[in-house]
Amino acid sequence: MNTSTKFRDFKTIQKIGFILIVIGGGIILLKIIGLLSASHFIEEDMPNYLFLTGALLFLLPTLKKRSIGKNGSEKISILLLALSTGLSTMAQDYSKQIDAFEQSFIQKSVSPIEAYVSPALKFDPIPVANTPAILANIFANLPKLNAMTILESEKGKVKIKYDFEELGIRESHVYFDKEDKFTRIELIENLIKMELEAQEKMKESVQLPNSDVLGEKYQPKKVEFETADGLLVNGNLYEIGKDNPVILLCHQAGYNRFEYADIAPKLNEMGYNCLAIDQRSGGNFADKPNITADRAKENGLPTEYIDAQQDIEAAIDFLNKKYEKKVIVWGSSYSSSLALLEGVSNDKVEAIIAFSPGDYFGDAAPSLSSAFAKADKPFLVTSSKAEAAALTSLLGNVSLQENQSQFIPESDGFHGSKALWTGQKGAEEYWKTVLSFLEKI
Known about the structure:
Elements: H1 3-32, H2 46-67, H3 72-90, H4 95-107, H5 111-114, H6 131-141, E1 145-154, E2 157-164, E3 168-176, E4 182-185, H7 186-204, H8 212-217, E5 221-226, E6 232-238, E7 246-249, H9 263-269, E8 273-277, H10 291-298, H11 309-323, E9 327-332, H12 334-343, E10 349-355, H13 368-374, E11 379-382, H14 388-395, E12 404-407, H15 427-439
Parallel strand pairs: 7-8, 7-9, 9-10, 10-11, 11-12
Antiparallel strand pairs: 1-2, 2-3, 3-4, 5-6, 6-8
C-alpha cells in the first residue's frame, strides 16, 4: 500500500471518529441540559462509548505515525490502556438507579426502585427486615417531589438535591455496592432520625392548648369573610376594643384556629384584638373541625399550602376594613412563610411574627431569602433550637433593620406557635421576646 492510500485510510478513520465524537458528545450534552432523559436509550452508557471510541479513532492514526519506531507499539498500548481506563471510569453511571428512585417518589410506590435495592440496605436503628416496609411508607407518605437533581457522582456514591413541596430543598448522598444497588439512602436516614427525635420531643410537649382563666374572660365570636376565589373563611375574633391594635393568627399544617385557644386570650390581656382563622390547608384539631378546609374540599378548591395565601390576604383585608388600621400578621410553620411572603409586599400589613418559617412550597413560591431581602417593615422570626440554623441560612447576609430579628431559644423549643402554649417548656422566653417585639411597633 502506497503513502497516499495510507493517508486516505487514515483520513477515513478520522472522519468516522469525528462523527462518533459528534454523536456521542451531542447525546451527552442533551442529557446534561435535560432535553433527553435516560429512558431514550437502550444502553445507558452508549453515549460515553460512542464519544471515547470516536476520540480513539480520531487520534489513533496521528499517534501511530508519530509513534512508529523504537518503543512505538508500547506507546500505542499505553494509549489504549489509558483510553480504556477512562472509558471504564466514564461509564460509571447511576442515572438508571436515580431515575428509578425519582419514579418511586412520583408514583408513591416502591416498585420502580425495587430492582436496585441491596439486601444490605437498612436504616438504623431499625432492623433490616423492616426495610421494605420503611421504603413503602416513605414513598407513599412523603409530600410531592417537585424535582430531583444529581449534583455530584463518583464510584459508589451520588449526591442528590431534592425539592419537596412541604419539606423544601434538601441535599444528601446515596451509596451503591459493587452491583450498583442502593446500600444507603441518607435522605431516609435523616427523615427517620428527625421522626424519632420528634417522638421524643412530643413526650415532653404539651399536647393541646389550655385557655384556663383567661379563656373564660375573653370569649371569641365567630366571623366569616370571602376570598378572591369565593371560599368562605371561618374565624374566631377575640375583640377587646375598636381602637386597639389587631393581630391576625394563622395556624400550622393539620391544625385550625384552636392552635391559638390559649394564645389569643393572653394577647387580649396585653391589649390586642386577635383573629384566629381556619385556612383551607389544615385539619381537625383539639376535637374541632377546620371549617374552611372542609368547605374547600366540598367545593373542589385546591388545598395545598400555597393556596392558603389567599385566605390570609382576605383576612388582612377583612381586619383592615373593620378596624381601619394596619394588621400584624402572625404565622405558624407553613403559614408563617405565607405571612412573610404576603406581608412584605402588602401595604395593609404593619409587622410580621413568624414561628418556624421555611421554604415549604418548592417552585410554587419564591424562597424566603427573597422576602427577607426586600422586607422594610418590622418582623420577628423564631423556631425551635434545632430549626434555627436553617432559618439563619434563609436570612443569609441580609442587613436587618430596626425591629427586625431572629430569636433562638435557650431551651430546645418547639415547632410553630405551640411553643407558647400554657405549660410548654420554654414558653416564657418566647413570650418575653414576642412582648418586647410588639411593644416596639
